[in-house]
Amino acid sequence: MFKKFQPSADVSGQVSVKSSVQRNIRASILSQWNINPETFEQIWPKKEPLTLVKCREHISIYTLHGEPLFFQHFDGPFFPTLRLLHKYPSILPMVRVDRGAIRFLLAGAHMMCPGFTSAGGSLPPADAALPPNTPVAIHAEGKEHAAGIGLTKLGTEEIRKVNKGVGVETVTYLGDDLWKIQQL
């Protein structure tokens, strides 16, 4: 999604978000992410104005004082930026790929099922299984912080059973053009 993102060419405009829309966004994020309201208040204080940065391909980046906090594609789920995820690692459920998948993840490839089911990979246990189309933090074997953020294409139990094909669609990853942006 952010492989060839150039703010000078891909940003079509910036708009302050109305307070009624901000309340809806806040409620939506609190229902989607595993975050308590106090922590979310630290990330985005209620009285602080949010700016919507409209980009190509129907991508919306929401910024606070120019710093990108989260983004959305069309009317899909809200994703935190990797910088925000590194500050608050428990926001999204975690999956882990083995060492062999790291170079593909850092190149922006989607993560295949065998990367999660092999010795170095891991998925949530069966009692905490994730359904398809769930935003997840993609960690790499042996690394402390998330290396990417993705959207599950299959449920985690289905990834274990099928063990073939794309398991998680990569949305953003370390080193992509969204990662390189400090301020918009």
UniProtKB/TrEMBL annotation:
Domain PUA: 93-175
SUPFAM superfamilies tied to this protein: PUA domain-like (SSF88697)
Predominant cellular place of this UniProt entry's protein: cytoplasm
Molecular function, one GO term: RNA binding
Location relative to the cell: Cytoplasm
One Pfam family hit: Pre-PUA
PANTHER family: MALIGNANT T-CELL-AMPLIFIED SEQUENCE 1, MCT-1 PROTEIN
Reported function: Involved in translation.
Protein name as it appears in the record: Translation machinery-associated protein 20
Top-level taxonomy: Eukaryota, Fungi, Dikarya, Basidiomycota, Agaricomycotina
